[in-house]
From TrEMBL:
Amino acids binding Ca(2+) 1: 46, 121, 123
Listed InterPro entries: Hemopexin-like_dom (IPR000585), Hemopexin-like_dom_sf (IPR036375), Hemopexin-like_repeat (IPR018487), M10A_MMP (IPR033739), MetalloPept_cat_dom_sf (IPR024079), Pept_M10_metallopeptidase (IPR001818), Pept_M10A (IPR021190), Pept_M10A_Zn_BS (IPR021158)
Protein family (similarity comment): Belongs to the peptidase M10A family.
Name of this chain's protein: Putative 72 kDa type IV collagenase
Biased composition regions of type Pro residues, renumbered to the chain: 189-230
Originating species: Stichopus japonicus (Sea cucumber)
Residues involved in Ca(2+) 2 binding: 80, 114, 116
Binding positions (Zn(2+) 1): 90, 92, 105, 118
Gene Ontology MF annotations: metalloendopeptidase activity; zinc ion binding
GO cellular component: extracellular matrix; extracellular space
Residues reported to bind Ca(2+) 3: 97-98, 120, 123
Amino acid sequence: MKRPRCGLPDIIDVNSMKRRKKRYQLAGSKWGKKDLSYRIVNYTPDLAQHQVQDAIARALQAWSDHTPLTFRPTTSSNADIQIKFARGSHGDGYPFDGRGGTLAHAYFPGPGIGGDAHFDDGERFTHRSVTGTNLFLVAAHELGHSLGLGHSDVESALMAPYYQGYTTSSVIQPDDIRGIQQLYGRRPPNQPTNPRPDPRPNPRPNPRPNPRPNPDPVPPRRPGQEPPQRPECNQQFQAALFIDPHLYLFQGKTVWRVNENGQVDNGWPKQVSVIFTGFNRVVDAIYRKADGTAVVFSGNQYYEYLGQRLKRGFPKTVRSLGLGVDRLDAAVVWARNGKTYFFSGTQYWRFDDKRKRPDSGYPRPIEGNWRGIPAAPAAAFANGEEGSSFSNS
């Protein structure tokens, strides 16, 4: 029987790869403030509204007990963390699969959909019960992602990538505490507790448009199974490309293929020429256009591949893009506006692929304009259509 999988293949963060000796993993972004608002957009029919409110409030309280963070319920559509229940396709490009598979997914801190948590309403959620899928436990895990935590390699940790089963004891384990305090510090003595949720039901608004991608995986729901072996990634990868359902990780002239369970497929790594015919160079950066074209940067040139074949007229020089530089460090597409962003040194450009030129007013400094990424990123892991993760060199 196929093991229930995470909500999405994890866009692996190179920072976490270089920190493999640390058990917890950080997403590379965090909230820049300590008082966060949250909104329950709608409710599951499995539970009374007050039970949902209680589960979410307790899940957030589990994190605020160990940090200076406070969480304030609101009915505002501008809440930092939007929480909703949905079935199948629900507007973010990552459909749920119904009962028995994906439980939920959450987005790391950031603008737009960043920080939001979505729960699969095809599951049977329960309240203070060891049966079914305990909403409090799943929410505590997902909201850990919303605060900036990745998955932990410690099996007993809340942030381990599989469902642990409900317990009446503390769900936040020492490894979780170390991770969250690395991001936000310790809780000051005598700090007030979180406000309790407003008992009034929230209206059902339209979904927020223009989602920002990369929901992090959720725990599969079958306790007792051994977790799959995860690839040991001590080296730094320079780029990545997500081609559903695989994530291709590039280092030098070598590429790894990671499957939807977070494991390196048998027979990998291989030479880059396996996926891009005739390409025998180091990949510096890569992204994918809306038509499926992979744009590969290497040194002072770039190549466009449709499938495995190089398009006619390539390679071309990086300088021909009109950026005024000879090479790039990273390139990603942001789904919110469909624009491509190029990074070189401490500057970035917004590029219009349709007009084949950078937008006016660029380059701009990375620092102060892109929250949560290094001032001079050396690598980007990117799903060319939908998401990105940056790292230092």
